[in-house]
Queue: 3 jobs
Job 1
Amino acid sequence: MAKEKKQVFVQHITARDEDFSQWYTDVVTQTDLMDYTPVRGCMALRPYGNRIWELIHDELDARFKETGHENVAMPMLIPESLLLKEAEHVEGFAPEVAWVTHGGNEQLQERLAIRPTSETMFCTMFSKWVQSWRDLPMKYNQWCSVMRWEKTTRPFLRTSEFWWQEGHTVHALPEEAQEETLLMLDVYREFCSNVLSIPVFSGQKSDKEKFAGARATYSVEAMMQDGKALQAGTTHNFGTNFSEPFEIRYLDKDGTLKYCHETSWGMSTRLIGAVIMTHGDERGLKLPPLIAPFQAVMLPIAAHKGGVMEKCEEAFTSLKAAGIRVKLDDRDNVSPGWKFNEWELKGVPLRIEIGPRDVENGVAACARRDTNEKFTLPLDDLAQKVHEVLEDIQQNMYASADQFKLEHTKDVFGMEELTQQVSCGYARAMWCGERACEDVIKEETGATSRNMPFDQSPIGHTCVCCGKKASKVMYFAKAY
Amino acid sequence: MAKEKKQVFVQHITARDEDFSQWYTDVVTQTDLMDYTPVRGCMALRPYGNRIWELIHDELDARFKETGHENVAMPMLIPESLLLKEAEHVEGFAPEVAWVTHGGNEQLQERLAIRPTSETMFCTMFSKWVQSWRDLPMKYNQWCSVMRWEKTTRPFLRTSEFWWQEGHTVHALPEEAQEETLLMLDVYREFCSNVLSIPVFSGQKSDKEKFAGARATYSVEAMMQDGKALQAGTTHNFGTNFSEPFEIRYLDKDGTLKYCHETSWGMSTRLIGAVIMTHGDERGLKLPPLIAPFQAVMLPIAAHKGGVMEKCEEAFTSLKAAGIRVKLDDRDNVSPGWKFNEWELKGVPLRIEIGPRDVENGVAACARRDTNEKFTLPLDDLAQKVHEVLEDIQQNMYASADQFKLEHTKDVFGMEELTQQVSCGYARAMWCGERACEDVIKEETGATSRNMPFDQSPIGHTCVCCGKKASKVMYFAKAY
């Protein structure tokens, strides 16, 4: 019976190696993370998906506060004239802006953009708020949704509206802005590694790939199980690119007015797509414990038998009291087999079953989602043991993903090798630094430059594309 | 010196009894809670104001989760056709909607409203998500900002964009929807009392004053220090008003399709305005400890003297470790007097000073913001004592506000009495239930019906306005 249900339950998930893209769609739509809405390209986050985002929020927000940032909330609308102030910036964003033209029954004198990002609004306010060197640094962040009118969209990966955080900071000195840019990049790297169990490539973007208006952009790039790159977060050093048009100046100790140096950095609901494609398998989602809405699910087996429900509830209470996010699934209208498959599909890290024999033996029968390993834990020390198992799952998921990343990254020295490597992973190559070569590589292989690692020890001396002298080490990959 | 600074610091705050409205504006703009932006009627929440909103969020959200609600995130845009589906609803909101007409360079086929509220979007999704009686109840909430194109705006009280939470729930039975509507009203009442230290009038709105599309609306109404009412939160029972046009039906146990019964309820950044106008005084803000970004501020006195800074840092660390939100103000460019006034202005509940003599005596010199009372606390038990003082401040602020509310509420029996009473507070009166009388009262006194208390013990038998037979007890007041 359980077996039969199982087949019914998972039959809709396409195999990853058959059609990775369809596998992704299957997993996303069958796990109640999100749903499509009547607004083109805009999704709704259902409780399960939204809870993951809340947990991501909590972990990231704690890191932002620890590093001295404060949250603010800015208007969602930006007057067109503000958006036009920084030339590169408007060129990058204007084509994908949603425009408000009417308020009530009146036509507005000036169109208002729904923010695609908030540099121009922050800069407008910073120009009021920053007066003296004593006001600096000013390190702000906001949690909100933004809108980019995308032509083709995919749940979590590219949607017209998405939820994110955007940090915006103002500094007196150029080196302080650079330090902030790299600090937040490292916060992102550490967060991906330790919270999402996703190892990343950390480095600097090429000029072609940098943010519209930035002097330098850095990114953390993750590798999906199809070998493609997903940009998980970016940090930007603006120098004075925005502070000059927006006139953000401070009175320095020497009595003169100086332009400020700014940064911005962001991560979004895209991360949920990254988690799915880094860890998921044919049975569905696989969630790292730190962002799992339920870290463990408890299933009574033969719940009608004496002592089972009592023991389950006792164990459930003790886990909850120990701060473990646990779900007691006491539904009586579906079989245990159905429940197994449903919670596997939803990626719950640990399954805990308690049946009559377990009650007798004083144990719980457990199964790990990451390794499928089955084992028992003593009921009288359950919370402590579950904590240890969850910690181990968190680390093991990182280790597996890191292993995959290593196996799918290769040094390449010519276009043929590059083409082959980016069909299944990342290629590390020497690059001359010319945009022309990036364009050729994109044209011929579909791959883009991802970033330049901080370790720039050369692996050769000639550009992988043009063969001319090259001193830059660059990662190339196809990307989401 | 401190005295002179003090005069400088507070001279901009108008006296409350001179011009309450100007007093409010002075306090709001001088405490760094918010700022005006280039978008008409839209404010920015600065770190201090945003932190208050975060703390309100955390307290409310915990209550929503405890009562079985889950958070979701819906699109910010709503197609015009959806907004039109419920007749009363569209009539209520259409005149104040901001419309998106263009995406990128293309004109949209259908206009999209920036959500003024999300009933129509929730209902659209509920009609997909609700199938069987097993899916019910579905109890969701979202935290977001909404947009209402207001003609005249005031910080926190009425802004075009504001931040809020909106709960939306679906139930099988009418009595379940009614139970939810009253449960959340009571959550709001308890939250106002225990977290904001604001006593409220809890009751049902008249038909005239109910939400566009609701069968019944309930509210919690606070009293500001000018005697005017501020609607702090509302809960609505929709019955099947939305489920019919949106076709939200469930397959019941008896095999038939039935319409669901729905509720919604919301609280917003308006609450920050309520806190300011309930508790503030001539020296500025007065924040209840539970939502104060800093519950205590620690000031070193003669910081250069031996042992002072060490003792301050030690005490600071012990308070932090005990979970108290404390700020150590070690600025050396302003005097202690300046700091006193700045933190008083910002409403920090407790000031803690440590100077050379305090170090010698093993005490800290404290001052309460609510009573201005000064006292010392032993340094070796500081965290525990501070906890107790904060708890006392929280309760005392409630008691003071409750006393004010009692003193400014009066039973009235005729129009003259009513007119006089609503010039300084709430009037409780018998009302015939006719809208015509509400209109006359509004016209003649400027007051509106606020709500009907659950205790409907009659205080008379004739309508305060028309003199006809009356059985309803109603509160009237001028309102924000």
Job 2
Amino acid sequence: MTHSDSKSAAAPRAVVLLSGGMDSTTTLAVARAEGYACYALTVQYGQRHQAELEAARRVAAAVGVVEHKTTALDLRWIGGSALTADIAVPKDRVADASIPITYVPARNTIMLALALGWAEVLDAHAIFIGVNALDYSGYPDCRPAFIAAFEQLANLATRAGVEGMPLHIHAPLLHMTKAEVIQTGTRLGIDYAMTVTCYDADAEGRACGHCDACQLRRKGFAAAGIADVTRYRGK
Amino acid sequence: MTHSDSKSAAAPRAVVLLSGGMDSTTTLAVARAEGYACYALTVQYGQRHQAELEAARRVAAAVGVVEHKTTALDLRWIGGSALTADIAVPKDRVADASIPITYVPARNTIMLALALGWAEVLDAHAIFIGVNALDYSGYPDCRPAFIAAFEQLANLATRAGVEGMPLHIHAPLLHMTKAEVIQTGTRLGIDYAMTVTCYDADAEGRACGHCDACQLRRKGFAAAGIADVTRYRGK
């Protein structure tokens, strides 16, 4: 306890990026378990449905955060991704694609930059993000070197760097398999039925069961030896 | 000419951050003079007036860009700055403040991240930003080390890095005095009357003449030995 004493005698503060998916939910649970007072940030970047946003609200309430902010960021003008532009999401995983069509240009850079701004105002010196290098499906901004580079940038970009109190980017899932993510969250009391992972979930948040994200999630439950609580369509 | 051949046989592409102020306008003029096909990006981040946006439109048309995109990004939820929150802009420059109240948390990080996303989709390997280390007034994200760190991040965050075609962040004003900025732009044919620098410009884009930005600009014209064409209120 050093710098955080000035604003909170109880716990250091952390900004946690929360999409409402399995990984960010587990990350929030880890941050809470490590004793951080958590400020959850959900960035709506032109997704085609609201199911994830509602999942983020459920998760923030269930896990317990000091504050949950949602900010709209229209990335559709950038184009170039099936998640933000008018390109169909592939119905089945393409195993050999180097970078998948669902990759959103610079997404994690943009979301971490927004989290950094809030962290600076909160005097939080921790940012949590649920990126995963093993199951990252070819996204360049989920690699350990990217996280290290952003941490370096963050300490040059802000008062934290100028005033000598370093800020750390925490990516607790970075080296976990999807099964280890599920085991970790389950151990911390997460009910994954409240999370939405599917790229093509319906209005009630029910998953398609076929897309890249659904297949990774399904395999994760199987490998973890934990019953798949995901709500699928048509069941 | 290497990678840009695939999308443009004529000129390499650059994304140029354009606020409509003196520095970003000069930066755009430099990028054009260096032969880039320019894609101007204006980020509206909750400024309290539209004068800068209109200036950006005038500048983009006058200097000549392939495309000018404007994207809204509400940073008011972050708070912590006189430019985005409900804090009065200081009427006179405070010379000894370490980081001024008009500093917007993580602003350049966020704007460069958005530019990076567009650059990736355009297959542009150059991003221009008009930051200035000498007249930077204490903003941490205007320092040379910040620009170098963002370039490193950019090459890890995107396909450019994965596919081995590096992206460069160009900050041509980085080591210029304000006088040198004005001399450079004037030599390249910029009419600075169309730009807006003032933190408190009126609806017609006329400057207050007293704020931090106005005082730096006024001194710049004087030091450059060029007549101040700024439109001030009450004149």
Job 3
Amino acid sequence: MIAVAEALERILSELRPVATESVPLPSGWNRVLAEPLRSRLTQPPVDVSAMDGYAVRAGDAVAGATLRVVGEAPAGRPWAGRLAAGEAVRIFTGGALPAGADGILLQEDAEAAGDQVSAREAVQPDRWIRRRGLDFAAGDVLLPVQRRLTARDVGLAAAGNHPWLTVHRRPRIGILATGDEIALPGEPLPPAGIVSSNAHALSALVRAAGGEATVLPVARDDAGSIARAGRAAEGFDLLLTTGGASVGAHDLVQSALLPEGFQRNFWRVAMRPGKPLIWGRLRDVPLLGLPGNPVAAMVCGAVFLLPALAKLSGLPAAPTPTRPARTGRALPGNDQRQDYLRARLSADGAVATAAERQDSSMLNTLARADALLLRPPHAPPLPEGAAVEVIDLAPLGI
Amino acid sequence: MIAVAEALERILSELRPVATESVPLPSGWNRVLAEPLRSRLTQPPVDVSAMDGYAVRAGDAVAGATLRVVGEAPAGRPWAGRLAAGEAVRIFTGGALPAGADGILLQEDAEAAGDQVSAREAVQPDRWIRRRGLDFAAGDVLLPVQRRLTARDVGLAAAGNHPWLTVHRRPRIGILATGDEIALPGEPLPPAGIVSSNAHALSALVRAAGGEATVLPVARDDAGSIARAGRAAEGFDLLLTTGGASVGAHDLVQSALLPEGFQRNFWRVAMRPGKPLIWGRLRDVPLLGLPGNPVAAMVCGAVFLLPALAKLSGLPAAPTPTRPARTGRALPGNDQRQDYLRARLSADGAVATAAERQDSSMLNTLARADALLLRPPHAPPLPEGAAVEVIDLAPLGI
């Protein structure tokens, strides 16, 4: 058994960001840029007004002065002339500042009559002018690599005049569930069989993390069936297996895949649930063997698969974030395995109360949990209210 | 001008959840159930073992006792007989408990030799047995309405034997940018023109909130162009407009759409940026008129559009969540408009520092912001470190 941190480090050190592709701007949301995005233009492209009013020579526009309105400069339609002494140009937010102007007489400080306008307040030079390049200049890095693009980022990339973005393609993840006792939802169920939930829960997790999941047909608990599935793994960036609950299922995955070129990196992690985790490589394809137990599969998904998907996607290698909270109930001391307790959060998120029964088969408890409450190896007993670390589940979309 | 809270209330009270559709289970992630999902089966379907070991009659398996192994019960392959006195059945996690058995001798407490097994520890009745229905029973509500399905929920729906889910369809949102000065990225730019960023930023926001966005061709700043676009609005659940920055653009949207059946509910909200917000109905289609200013459009997106999309999606009507933080700089007193300052967060999220220049044209500042710091109307000046409320942007995907 190895520690959780070491397991994660070994997983991440084997993974590289996937290749890149060119996508149209609107497909860029939530993708990871593969190269820094530089602006192709300067914004604003010229000096513009920040307000509706009159472009003036500030020296002219003292309080009480009357100016002659010689033109109009709405956004997108610059006034071509040059402002002379005593002149003003009607201007609107975003309109280009005419040559010669160095101030804006605000609409609310102006009194217009015919082609005349009087200033009720003196105009300060430069005030209400957005200078060329205030937002960004051509060549500026607008968006860095290694983060998911937000809606605001998509807007900024558009403003920088990029119809296309170079992003990492979505990691392709194969998901192979094994087990004699499982059937897909709605299909005939073997006696005492259960409906396969892992593959589709993991597929949703992969999707939540920006990956592209392929759910392979369920493999039976025999070496031939698993080996056949393994041969189909070419082309995935990561192959997930999730073992059936039947005898030695994990040994079976390993032994069935050995002749197909499987090389194990580690097996068994000091955690609960999730101990029988496998990490290795099937020929060139990284293989993460998740436990068949559905709760264990999802906990390992949160702890190992999300960081793995992030690394494949081009994001920085980092553990799934935890944050401090207080325990809503007293907790017993822990043994040598790191424990991930399914917990409900108080409305403000400050208190995490572990479910009374933590049986790792209970999907219902898992779905109703808001967080995983971490109990490090050999953690001492804690009274109610003591400080703990939690992983928030809902923000991860899982 | 109306207050932000009243504006939001008026918007939400006009919206109803969209109709429903039937989607295959794997498409259910992040969708909103339209009816509570009840389990179609009982899980576990029979009493099963929670561990690898031997199913025994607890009364037989005292410390030191030797039992005869008469069969095997892996998951999915029940042993058909009935356990007699002095007998044991090899059992594995998830394996059905044979009739007559009421305890599990754990593998690590057992010594096996041929068809015999000895107990090193006494077996407690019921311990390590998962009783039929421990997780859920047929007919139980597994998943409620009014929340987005997580990956765990998808797993639970699968386990409850649902190949299909009845969810609200994605709200269809039309996005109409107007303005003479704007061009799409990569297209020829008019003199002093700017590249259209609003439509695609809003489209990404709609997508982040689970909607389906249709970006309409940019309408010119003339009544005919806007009216034509308005006639194409049938079939959307919500039409967004985003005004050009040119003269009276908002009046223009309203006046151009009036002959097309536009009815205004309100115009102008006491907020900064975002004052010239329009809310109404174009024939049967709710219309939200966002400011043309890109920062204002996104702030209104966060404050009004996200809750609107949530309500359309079948989620509860609620404002975008805020949370307490401390201001990283002293803040001046506020006027009658609620202010949304673009702010960076400290690593732990506890301190929000507003950008020095809050010019609402600056997309760069917006994209680099982690949060919007709220300043209520008439808020007093605050010293550095004072309590404020913030909206976290990244978790919203916007």
